[in-house]
Design a protein that fits this description.
Elements (H helix, E strand, L loop, with lengths): L2 E3 H13 L3 H11 L11 H9 L4 H11 L7 E3 L4 E3 L12
Antiparallel strand pairs: 1-3, 2-3
Helix pairs in contact: 1-3, 1-4, 2-4
Length: about 100
């Protein structure tokens, strides 16, 4: 049940972007700037710098599955300011 502080999650995203395939960078850019089409493929360094300059927690959550597509159940816990991922979902008991 991984949980990271928002700062640690942001750094993990930035590092993941620096290691991303060139073909994935356009998708990452589109997630960050949906209203602003890229004229050219953005550089990994520029995207990582933007990530490190500060994202809202909701933006971190939205971007997480683009950078780490294998991760599931990504969410932000406002109470302790952490990003959670790959946690098992708890089912609800059925009431008759």
């Amino acid at each position: 049940m991984p949980a990271l502080s928002k700062d640690m999650a942001t750094e993990k995203l930035a590092t993941g972007i620096e290691k991303a395939r060139q073909s994935a960078l356009a998708e990452i850019y589109a997630e960050l700037f949906p209203e602003k089409p890229a004229a050219a493929t953005p550089s990994a360094a520029d995207l990582a710098h933007y990530i490190r300059s500060g994202l809202d927690a909701e933006e971190v959550v939205d971007l997480w599955n683009v950078v780490f597509p294998a991760d599931r159940n990504v969410w932000y816990d406002e109470g302790d300011d952490t990003i959670h991922y790959n946690e098992a979902t708890v089912g609800y008991a059925e009431v008759d």
